[in-house]
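Spend some time on this chain, tokens included, and walk me through the fold:

. . .
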Amino acid sequence: MDKVIEIADRAVADYGFRQAVLYGADDVARRWELSDQETSVLETTVVQRLSALPIPVQPEDVPGEQARLAEMIREADQG
């Protein structure tokens, strides 16, 4: 799930990339060569959380949001 966390981290910090993930998760998954399980987590957990984030995420909030999303990804991987 390291690739998914890397994608999520970038999407939290970069609104343009967030849009790419939100509206083209399948393309992002293909470009990053994600497994089926990673793609599933990206298309569900990550997209849902990214949709709920403020536009933009304030710079001081980025590390906290990245940490929360990484934890959600790890939980989804185990669940």
